[in-house]
Amino acid sequence: MVETFLGMVLNAQEQLLKVEAGNPEKLVSYGNAVLNKTEKLVSTLVTPTKTSYSLNISLNGLELQVFAVGPEASMKEIPQLSVNSTQMEIDLIQISENNKGSAAVAFMSYSNMDNMLKPSFFNTTDNDTVKTMMSTVVSATLPKTNNTRLTKPVNFTMKHIEETDPNGTLSCVYWKNTEWVVAGCYLVQTNSTHTVCSCVHLSTFALIMQTKPLAETGFQSDFHLDLLNTVLVSVGLVFLSLTLLTFAICRRHLRMNNTPRINLCISLLLAHLIFLLTQSYLNYIQPLEMLCAVLAGVLHFLFLSAFVWMLIEAVLLLISVKNLRKIRSKQKEVLGWKCLVIIGYVIPLVVVGVSVGLFPGGYGSKQCWIKMDRDFIWSFVGPVCVILAVNVIIFIGIILTLRSALAGLNSDHSHIKQTK
């Protein structure tokens, strides 16, 4: 019965959002009404108990959990309630002791409440900031509990529903009649995916981020940068295509192994082409999360392939330098083109595969690239740093080997002159 009434309240909320979306005063009034009705209906779910029980309800637009304890309940740890990726820790043990051994807590998460109680209702001294809701709106109450005084602050671990802006300011807020306010709540810690808020009272809570609006010159600057990026990448694609065409035409006349250079150009050409198309149609691709993640994974693979082919080219160059004093280089015998292709593409494929296995959600940021969550960017930066470090070592080895070989050639030349 309670679920039916809750469903009616939530359906009414959806209808009101369609009709009164542009009326802030009506949204605030209806939002308060939904909160009050929901809390009253949820309180009817609490029944007296001697031990303890937990009740979970999931509806379209609302998830709630009720946890109640009685005089005979044996709790040694503070219970943690969880709804819709948000956790709450409340000292129900002490609250129950203040209420003759009985107490109950209700924890609710509203998926659409941010459309009524908008982040723009956040009361701040700086009204020029752009305010973004960073979490679902949650409510916590102590239904059918006489003494509702909290002995300890309540902690909320909120999952971010949007990517955080490094230059933004996060605030833990609660709803007070007509606006979001900070009083009594403070931010404990945060990372790229979650924020822990602590509050000294129970109410309706949310996480809001404030960012500075981009000035008109900023938009112009972004436009010019995007235009410059498009032009430069396009020019790069033209020259990479010409390079591949040159290798294709002159392939029979070259005695050296050009496999690394050809595949390096192919990797860079495909990577920059996909990057250019992705950024050009980002508004259409971004809503398709799976496509965005796949494109990020392909770019990860292609850019890593380019660096691996650079490393292979450095190794082959070292072999060539070491064979300077020989009449014919053994380069082709040491590493054939089939072996090179396997090395050049399997290594980055393994890195991408391991990355996906360790963190499947690491691809598909707002720019359809690698996400910064959990330092996942190191799946790209780490191998690149290793390859660059090895390349530096090989470069030093080439210089030393070349110096020794040239010194030997000069010595042989002097010896031949003396013999004549």
From TrEMBL:
Alphabetically list the UniProt keywords: Disulfide bond, Membrane, Transmembrane, Transmembrane helix
Q: Which GO terms describe its biological process?
A: adenylate cyclase-activating G protein-coupled receptor signaling pathway; cell surface receptor signaling pathway
What Pfam families does the database record attribute to this sequence? 7tm_2 (PF00002), GPS (PF01825)
Source domain of life is: Eukaryota
Membrane topology classification: Multi-pass membrane protein
Residue ranges constituting the G-protein coupled receptors family 2 profile domain according to the UniProt record: 225-420
* Principal subcellular localization: membrane
Bilayer-spanning residue ranges: 227-250, 262-282, 294-319, 340-364, 376-402
Q: Name one GO molecular function term.
A: G protein-coupled receptor activity
Q: Which InterPro entries match?
A: GAIN_B, GAIN_dom_sf, GPCR_2-like_7TM, GPCR_2_secretin-like, GPS
Where does it reside?
Membrane
- GO cellular-component term (any): plasma membrane
Domain GAIN-B span(s) in chain numbering: 53-215
The name this protein carries in UniProt is: Adhesion G protein-coupled receptor E3-like
